[in-house]
Amino acid sequence: MHSGAQSKTDFSAIFGTRLPIVAGGLMWLSDANYVAAAAKAGILGFITAASFPDENDLRAEIRKCRDLAGDAPFGVNVSMLPKLVPGDKTEEVFRIIIEEGVKVVETSGRNPEAYLPQLKAAGVKVLHKVPEVKYALKGQQIGVDAVSIVGAECGGHPGMEMIGSFVNSAMALEKLEIPYLIGGGVGHGSQIAAAMAMGASGVVMGTRFLVAEEIWAHDNFKRCLISATESDTALIMSSIRNTMRALSNETTAMVQEIEAQRDNVTIEDLLPLIAGKIAREAYVTGDYRRGVLSAGHALAFVDRIEPLADIVTRLEAQASEAFARIRGVAWS
Question: Low-confidence residues of the chain, pLDDT below 70?
Fold first, then answer.
């Protein structure tokens, strides 16, 4: 898998990408500029629908991305709440996706089964993101096209069981029949080769791409990530059964304190600290001390601000070296 080469996997055959890499949806940050840059670099990116709650804004962003990406594939991320609640706009979001001719969606949260018939009828491919292999099996059962399994090392939501990516990889090989991607702590090309050697069709990355020039967040935020290490994340929100890994900061420390000191913590107790608008403000101002800012163990590999295409080129070179090492191993 070297620069300019076609890496043909089940995944890239299904989704039309040059490389078997997904740039997973990043809340507030995955906009048309970033997703189109991913498309042109030969990987698959997703506009986060929740970042554009107004229907017209979401339509406009999809159209802008199509103009920028040309013929290269891209998708829309639809993160559904674990349970259907009043005012949920998931149905409307899928309608917009279909009407705008988007051909790939990344779903997460609750089971997308109710929406699969209309998506399939429109020729939309579904990549369902889960934290554990047991949920991937459910996705396979209901008919999604592929799954991405994000392990304990991931930024965002690693699930309640906190199963690591290495274990997920081997379990998925034994249990799944549909193409699957491995995520969680992936930020180096050698991990792409390792995941594929273990049976994956590719990988999903988020944290590694946060320092791409096309990410609109303030440079102070990106410089913070560059100076951070794999140890600079915190796990919060397990008390409300919605574990999240985020950049360690004042907010995560306060949430951990509440969770340690109180019984029967509710989301209402935490909302003044974890509300998404606080995170968005941090991206705008660069004040990374406040807000729940998703980041995973792949902070280990974040080293400079550069164009997304340059990050992908480095990943390709690292993966090529790893595949060469595998070929050179004598095994008998």
Answer: 1-8, 332
Instruction: Encode pLDDT of 168-189 as tens digits.
Output: 999 999 999 999 999 999 999 9
pLDDT (tens digit per residue) in 126-142:
999 999 999 999 999 99
Q: Where are the domains of the chain?
A: 10-212
The pLDDT score that the predictor gives to residue 82 is 74
Q: CA dihedral defined by 273, 254, 238, 274, rounded to 10 degrees?
A: 10
Q: Are 159 and 178 in contact (CB under 8 A)?
A: no
10-212: CATH topology is: TIM Barrel (3.20.20)
Of 250, 218, 210, residue with least CA distance to 234: 250
Sign of the C-alpha dihedral, residues 257, 258, 261, 263? negative
Enumerate residues 6+ apart whose C-beta is below 8 A from 265: 239, 240, 258, 259
Check residue 6 and give its pLDDT.
39
Q: Distance of alpha carbon 128 from its chain centroid, rounded?
A: 11
Which one, of 79, 121, 71, 81, lies nearest residue 98 by Cα? 121
Residue 64 CA to its chain's centroid (Å): 21
Return the half-sphere exposure (C-beta side, CA atoms, 13 A cut-off) of residue 294.
Answer: 25
